[in-house]
Amino acid sequence: MEFKRAIDNFPDTNIAVIGDIILDSYLYGNCERLSPEAPVPIVKKDSIIHELGGAANVAANISSLGGKVYLLGYYAQDDIGEILIEKLKEKNIDYKLFPVLSETSHKTRIIGNKRQQICRIDEEERANASSEIEKKLIEEIFSLNPDIIVASDYAKGALSRNLFLEMKERAKRKDKRIIVDPRPQNKWNYDAVYLITPNIKEGREMSNGRNAEEIGKILQRELNSNILLTRGEEGMTLFEREKVYHLPTKAREVYDVTGAGDSVAAVVALSLASGLNLEKSAFLANHVAGIVVGKPGTATVSKRELEQALEIEYGKIKNYDELKLIREEYRRKGKRFVWTNGCFDLLHLGHVRYLKKAKELGDYLAIGINNDESVKKLKGENRPINSETDRAEVLSSLEQVDCVYVFSELSVEKYLKELQPDVFVKGGDYTLATINQNERRIIEGYGGKIALIPLTEGKSTSGLIEKIKNSNH
Question: Is the backbone of residue 11 left (phi > 0), alpha (psi -120 to 50) or beta?
Fold first, then answer.
């Protein structure tokens, strides 16, 4: 699978993260009564937990997913700064921090009765680094030769306009992509970066747009960048050139949205650096965001958690060993195993009706689909229209489909011989005389059944392609 290959490549990536660095602290305690001094709850302190926040949380997400990351920014040589450095070491994050602040940015959240946030205490100083320090920081970034640069802007001064201008100019010369997790007040610093990832509230402030599509298109036009708009419980929307992709939320329960934007920026960076295109990178980021908002506080996601989320999503896409085990299980239970195969390039109504009738012939419907190379041999160099990964995902989303297997052969003789399906289904454009006779002999040899399902008149992939061609003339 393309996504699995990308995740396996995460350790080979090299991501630079620059921006406002924060230490997030969570003070937990029990809340049982109000103060006699004022109508506020009394919190009896139980524990305090420290987590990396801001740009440091982006770096923590990259590290927890197995990527190589280098964090750059500012801090203070104070007690909070020492805790921050310890957390970076604990999470195996390489860093270069300049001690230009008098106090390290620190947010303390008071949490009562395990999950109720009562208040937040912020301690921070706006960074005001000299041009000499900024120059050193820029030199440090590009000496790393990163695959991707992530700029995490919390509007605390680490990403000044001058620094941004110089960073963009150097990135352009060296063909490096920049991803920005933005703040509305610094909007005009971000023009012409590769990707900007505002949440819906930030997007609305930056554009004055009324809805997601309007917001994205305004920002895309004004800033000449791709836009990934995170929309909370409604998922995400990606605006890439002339295309718009809506990604529904993957969150099962929204517990805490703290740091979700950091996770999105981190996963998009890792995915792009691992060879995925922007659409598929956003898809992976959407899964990670769904995991993160289900956790309390500033959270990260592990590689295994992401793989498990994809296994749920792609649970119907099987390798051959898995398919053979499933076949054996259905044979033991005396249940009917149905097999059909084809290219299934542009899924249409005819396909859906065909597969629904195929499923009615047994208890389990397995679909074999030709990989891209075999489709080219069967249909010509201009096919397939959709990749094998996309075709498998679309088919697996159909309720009547129990599993999808991608094969490379031009004939399925091997699979019929080894799996011995109870029912082998073909389209009604075939007859027993015109189907592959070797396949027919295999099925009849072990006593299987061949079912021919009539096709839906006027519905075919070739007809659909021809219609699209004619509409463009």
Answer: alpha
On the CB side of 235, how many CA atoms lie within 13 Å of its CA? 14
pLDDT tens for each residue of 330-371: 998 899 999 999 999 888 888 899 999 999 999 999 999 999
Phi and psi of 224, rounded to 5°? 50, 45
Residue 213 neighbours by CB under 8 Å, 6+ apart: 237, 244
Which one, of 90, 56, 61, 58, lies nearest residue 75 by Cα? 56
- Please check whether residue 364 is in contact with residue 330, taking contact to mean a CB–CB distance below 8 angstroms: yes
pLDDT tens digit sequence for 202-211: 999 999 998 9
Of 72-76, 343-347, 464-468, the poorest mean pLDDT is in: 464-468
How many beta carbons lie within 10 A of that of residue 321, not counting itself? 8
The edge-to-edge listing of strands for the beta sheet with 106-112 is 41-54, 21-34, 106-112, 116-123
Residue 385, both tokens? 């229209």
pTM assigned to the model: 0.68
CA atoms within 13 A on the CB side of 98: 20
Query: Position 265: which residue type?
Result: A
Domains delineated in the chain: 2-313 (3.40.1190.20), 320-471 (3.40.50.620)
What is the tally of helices (H) and strands (E) in the chain? 17, 18
User: Concatenated DSSP letters for 231-260?
Assistant: -GGG-EEEEETTEEEEE----S-----TTH
Stated as kind and residue range, the H or E segment containing 41 is strand 41-54
Tell me whether residue 305 is exposed, middle or buried, using C-beta atoms within 10 angstroms of its C-beta: 0 to 12, 13 to 18, 19 or more.
middle
* Catalytic machinery residues: 262
Tokens representing 229 are 């708009």
